[in-house]
Amino acid sequence: xxxxxxxxxxxxxxxxxxxxxxxxxxxxxxxxxxxxxxxxxxxxxxxxxxxxxxxxxxxxxxxxxxxxxxxxxxxxxxxxxxxxxxxxxxxxxxxxxxxxxxxxxxxxxxxxxxxxxxxxxxxxxxxxxxxxxxxxxxxxxxxxxxxxxxxxxxxxxxxxxxxxxxxxxxxxxxxxxxxxxxxxxxxxxxxxxxxxxxxxxxxxxxxxxxxxxxxxxxxxxxxxxxxx
Length: 228
Description:
By secondary structure, the chain is mostly helical. The protein contains 3 helices and no strands.
């Protein structure tokens, strides 16, 4: 049908149709260029937004990590101060107990000197030395147990802090990957929307084109009849 219509057209009408097609083609190219520029601008804006969000997230993560390190160092200093204080107290207690033991030994020696027989002196001295040894062993054991418990607690705190930092790093990486995926999806959606819109406009222009041609042909026929 289209070939028959073209054969019936005159040279002027064909020329006019070709000019019209050329103008429509140029207009479509301009629209396509504009759509492409818009898509590029939107993509740059999305990339810029994603970069800013990622920079803000990394900055927030660095600040949180610095706060955690400061808090950990503060807790470490407090624990060290407490440990030093406990050690000083234990050393003072040891000094007092040694002084007490020394006094007991001196008293025992004085009793030995005042005792009547060597057997009595040996019994008294043996009991004092045994009690002193038991007290010293008990003190050393308590000191070792307390130091081991404090070290174990300090080690658990350090491991917990390391786990929290590792978890924060993992969450930050996952958020960055999710943001990048969302940005790519937005860019694809924008491109698809622009393509569909351009296709719809092109189809609409194709539908209106035959009507324009028929209108121009009617005007030409009217003019030819008037000339005759």
